[in-house]
């Protein structure tokens, strides 16, 4: 038991701001790498027999994964006490929005040739398009107000209230993924499940905080 | 263990601050690159998909010939696309999977059971069955229910010839096709996405229509496994899922067969499944389609462009209800 106790009670080292200067650029460029690869694949005919569908699917999946990654930052701090993910949360969110917007552009511009009647009909008549479109639209104000200056301008409370829209956008995106699937729901349900866990962690955390019990951060264990 | 004395290094900086700076810069460069590769690599691994290689198959057919009465003169889809973009859930639900995974399917020896409302049920070897009929090319449009289409040079024989050879009794009203059910050969069957075996069917008059076709090959080559070897159905005026693959049993019946997709989701897939731009899939439009190899969409035609030949089969029927 002794070595275990020792490792637990070891205080976590505080990380200096300058020490993580590589993280942000690394995540942004790494996040854009799949786009470069996809453009290369498209150019060299590696997107398969139906490249438009492949590109649509790929950008949608990238948006989903990056959005989940951005939503994982807070639970990681709450449960494991990690503070570094918060530094890349904004980058992850903006990357998710970039791919979601591209996903929508590919669908409306390349797939449907920007035909207004098709776009309007799709948004109004097809629930999976309606919710997908709504998810992207909801993310627009979040992308616009993602800078530090905008936080100051709006005031933190209002800014935070606005940015809670991301939960709705993520839920709609999960629904969009499930509804567009022809039959095999395993993949969309996996992502929806991860989203569920990430949102549930927040709910549990907030409930515990309200009860006034000490939070389960590694530094302040109560039992 | 040999240590290089610090004096020998030509990169020796002038002071300690410079060393620290250089070290910090190098460390940051390595960490940034590592993060780019790590983040970009895992995202690509999760989302990118390698395309499958084109299969090699022996030529069995003859040379090109003038177009027949049922052939379309439209540009044919590339053999590469026809054989690497497949819906064959017995090998996985992704379209690239059948080409990668169908190697486990053993198509020889293969027998087909011909039974039901027939004069004399029999089990016949695929090579014998194939030898009963002169094999011919049929260049057909194929429209998938998902909204994409191809032009495929099938090779085989008319279904009507087989039905006549089976000698239907007076009770025969429908034909039911059953595909192989063997998870050892068809690993996708373990994934439980649909009920196995895959079952499809037609009304007997549809089966007797000269367009209905049994394919054993594509473009003069034996069918690659991912396209439904060794024997599959082709009904060009219906959505592609009617074209059941790797058939082991053909049964004439008096009642309408309970077909796989209609059972799995009766609100979205019907028994008839005639291509109809006016009847949308509950979740997406069927008005347009993407021809594989083309960038923009084209309008979908009633009965997939075969209305002149087959529309009379459905006169008086409400095609919105009998979708």
Draw up the topology in text.
The complex is a heterodimer of chains A (223) and B (323).
Chain A: H1 2-9, H2 23-43, H3 51-80, H4 84-111, H5 116-125, H6 127-144, H7 148-154, H8 156-163, H9 165-180, H10 186-210
Chain B: H1 16-47, H2 79-84, H3 97-101, E1 111-116, E2 122-125, H4 126-131, E3 136-143, E4 148-158, H5 159-166, E5 174-179, E6 199-203, H6 204-207, E7 213-218, E8 221-222, E9 232-234, E10 247-253, H7 260-264, E11 288-291, E12 298-299, H8 307-310
Parallel strand pairs in B: 1-10, 4-11
Antiparallel strand pairs in B: 1-2, 3-4, 4-7, 5-6, 5-10, 7-8, 7-9, 11-12
Q: Quick one: how many beta strands of chain B?
A: 12
Q: How many strand elements of chain A?
A: 0
Average pLDDT, all residues of chain A: 88
Please give the alpha-carbon distance between the first and last residues of chain B: 79 Å
Structural class label of chain B: alpha+beta
Given helix and strand content, the structural type of chain A is mainly alpha
Largest interface pair:
A-B, 44 and 48 residues
The CATH class of the largest domain in chain B, by name, is Alpha Beta
Count of helices of chain B?
8
Helicity range of chain A: over 70%
Order of helices and strands of chain A: HHHHHHHHHH
Low-confidence stretches of chain B: none
What is the beta-strand fraction of chain A?
under 5%
The CATH homologous superfamily name of the largest domain in chain B equals Oxidoreductase, molybdopterin-binding domain
Low-confidence stretches of chain A: 1-13, 215-223
Order of helices and strands of chain B: HHHEEHEEHEEHEEEEHEEH
* Main sheet attributes: strand count, strand direction, barrel closure of chain B: 7 strands, mixed
């Amino acid at each position: 038991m002794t070595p275990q106790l020792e490792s637990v009670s070891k205080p976590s080292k505080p990380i200096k701001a300058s020490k993580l200067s590589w993280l942000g650029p690394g995540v942004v460029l790494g996040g854009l790498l799949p786009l470069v690869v996809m453009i290369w694949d498209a150019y060299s005919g590696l997107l398969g027999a139906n490249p438009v569908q492949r590109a649509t699917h790929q950008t949608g999946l990238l948006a989903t994964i990056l959005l989940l990654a951005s939503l994982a930052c807070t639970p990681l701090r709450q449960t494991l006490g990690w503070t570094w993910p918060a530094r890349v949360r904004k980058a992850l969110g903006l990357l998710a929005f970039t791919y979601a917007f591209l996903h929508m552009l590919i669908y409306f511009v390349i797939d449907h040739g920007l035909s207004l009647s098709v776009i309007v009909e799709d948004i109004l008549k097809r629930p999976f398009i309606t919710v997908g479109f709504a998810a992207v639209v909801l993310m627009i104000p979040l992308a616009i107000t993602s800078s530090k200056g905008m936080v100051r301008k709006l005031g933190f409370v209002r800014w935070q209230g606005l940015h809670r829209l991301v939960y709705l956008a993520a839920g709609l995106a999960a629904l969009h993924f499930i509804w567009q699937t022809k039959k095999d729901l395993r993949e969309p349900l996996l992502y929806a499940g991860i989203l569920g866990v990430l949102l549930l962690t927040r709910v549990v955390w907030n409930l515990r905080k309200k009860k006034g019990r000490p939070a389960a951060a590694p530094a302040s264990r109560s039992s | 263990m040999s240590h290089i004395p610090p004096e020998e290094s030509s990169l020796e900086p002038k002071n300690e601050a410079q060393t620290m700076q250089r070290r910090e810069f190098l460390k940051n460069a390595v960490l940034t690159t590592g993060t780019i590769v790590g983040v970009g690599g895992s995202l690509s691994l999760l989302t990118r998909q390698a395309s499958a290689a084109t299969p090699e198959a022996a030529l069995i057919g003859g040379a090109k010939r003038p177009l027949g009465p049922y052939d379309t003169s439209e540009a044919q889809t590339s053999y590469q696309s026809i054989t690497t973009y497949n819906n064959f859930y017995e090998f996985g639900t992704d379209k690239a999977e059948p080409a990668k995974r169908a190697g486990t399917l053993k198509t020889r020896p293969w027998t087909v059971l011909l039974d039901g409302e027939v004069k004399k049920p029999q089990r016949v070897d695929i090579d014998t069955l194939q030898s009963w009929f002169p094999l011919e090319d049929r260049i057909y449009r194929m429209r998938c229910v998902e909204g994409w289409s191809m032009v495929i040079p099938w090779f085989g024989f008319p279904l009507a010839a087989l039905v006549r050879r089976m000698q239907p009794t007076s009770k025969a009203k429908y034909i039911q096709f059953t595909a192989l059910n063997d998870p050892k050969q068809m690993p996708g069957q373990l994934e439980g996405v649909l009920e196995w075996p895959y079952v499809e069917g037609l009304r007997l008059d549809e089966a007797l229509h000269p367009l209905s076709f049994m394919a054993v090959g594509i473009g003069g080559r034996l069918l690659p496994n991912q396209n439904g070897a060794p024997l599959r159905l082709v009904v060009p005026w219906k959505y592609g899922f009617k074209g059941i693959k790797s058939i082991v049993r053909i049964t004439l019946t008096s009642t309408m067969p309970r077909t796989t997709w209609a059972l799995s989701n009766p609100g979205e897939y019907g028994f008839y499944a005639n291509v109809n731009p006016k009847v949308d899939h509950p979740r997406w439009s069927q008005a347009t389609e993407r021809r594989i190899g083309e960038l923009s969409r084209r309008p979908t035609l009633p009965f997939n462009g075969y209305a002149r030949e087959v529309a009379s089969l459905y006169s008086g029927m409400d095609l919105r209800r009998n979708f």
